[in-house]
Design a protein that fits this description.
By secondary structure, this protein is of the alpha/beta class. It has a domain at 3-169 and 195-227 and 289-304: Rossmann fold (3-Layer(aba) Sandwich), CATH 3.40.50.720. The chain contains eleven helices and 14 strands. The model has no long low-confidence stretch (mean pLDDT 94).
């Protein structure tokens, strides 16, 4: 049994990871900010509501733990200062606390956004390449990675997931709703390629790195090895839902003005920062969000099967069962 602390344990990835590790017989402490929604966590007894600014409280919590898995993060924000506070400063603070504790491994959930897009369809990014983030989010995650590699006094593992879908996710929910309504909007007239990873695949990969010497001081992309073309993605989801769709292609040049309007509206009405924002437009304009998975196959002995259709069906069933769709 391993004693594990998970930050951001109420989030999509954090909650799925906590649920999996508990079922595997581990002692899991779920760190959650006060007032957060914890519906995705199956075992509420393991939740600790904390203030991440309270260093002494966190020191006390992790003093006898084996592993800290840092999943808490901000994925979109209006300005750099918010990314700095959550994605960089918090990571640095947690690492400093772990450096003075008995924690034996620091696992950091980073992002494909750190590496940036690939150059072509046939050459996915590899972990040892120089990162080229194009968004504030990617740049903030890179800063956090650099702090870990420079300052960690215990073995560390950095995991860079590609886009994650599955039970509990809200970003792909939008696409599922479009497919259900028989209309899909594509943000380009040309083909684009990407890797995805199902939430159960990601949590399996993370679990495989825990106390694994082959994962110490290593960076791993987390992805299903099969890349998808953008229209193929929508067709697979349509097949999973047994729905036929009409595809409406939107010129890329109108995405930026739409993003500006959405950001302005969210600012005026004090609503959550929109999914389609200026930073996200930079992501959408890239053609090849693909990575190479050979390192994971070699070091962690993992090679995920092509089960996109099955996993889309599982995701849709979960959405229906929860009344999300």
């Amino acid at each position: 049994m391993k004693r594990i602390v998970i930050t951001g344990a109420n989030g999509f990835v954090g909650s799925s990871l906590a649920n999996k590790l508990l079922k595997s017989g581990n002692e899991v402490t779920c760190l959650v900010r006060s007032g957060s929604n914890t519906k995705l966590l199956e075992n509420k007894k393991n939740i600790l509501y904390i203030n991440y600014k309270n260093v002494n409280e966190i020191k006390e919590i992790i003093k006898d733990k084996d592993v800290l898995i840092h999943t808490a993060a901000l994925t979109r924000a209006r300005n750099w200062s918010k990314f700095q506070k959550i994605n960089i400063d918090l990571t640095e603070s947690l690492l400093e606390i772990c450096n003075t504790s008995n924690v034996k491994q620091f696992i950091f959930l980073s992002s494909q956004a750190v590496s940036g897009p690939a150059e072509n369809e046939n050459s996915g990014r590899i972990e040892k390449e120089t990162p080229s983030p194009i968004t504030m989010y990617g740049k903030s995650k890179l800063k956090a990675e650099q702090i870990i590699q420079k300052s960690a006094k215990m073995p560390w593992t950095i995991i860079r997931p590609v886009s994650v879908y599955g039970t509990g996710d809200k970003d792909f929910l939008i696409l599922f709703k479009m497919v259900k309504n028989h209309i899909v909007f594509l943000n380009s007239f040309k083909s684009k390629y990407l890797n995805l990873i199902y939430i159960d695949e990601l949590t399996e990969l993370i679990e495989r790195t825990i106390n694994n010497k082959d994962a110490y001081n290593e960076i791993f992309f987390a992805a299903n090895p099969r890349k998808l073309e953008n229209t193929e993605l929508h067709k697979l989801i349509g097949e999973a839902l047994n729905k036929k769709t009409i595809t409406i292609k939107i010129p890329e040049f109108i995405l930026y003005p739409i993003a500006i309007i959405l950001e302005l509206v969210s600012s005026i009405f004090k609503t959550r920062f929109p999914i389609l924002n200026k930073d996200k437009v930079k992501v959408f304009k890239q053609d090849y969000w693909i990575v190479d998975t050979n390192k994971v196959k070699k070091k962690l002995k993992i090679e995920f099967k092509d089960e996109y259709l099955l996993n889309f069906k599982k995701t849709y069933k979960w959405y229906k069962d929860k009344g999300w769709i």
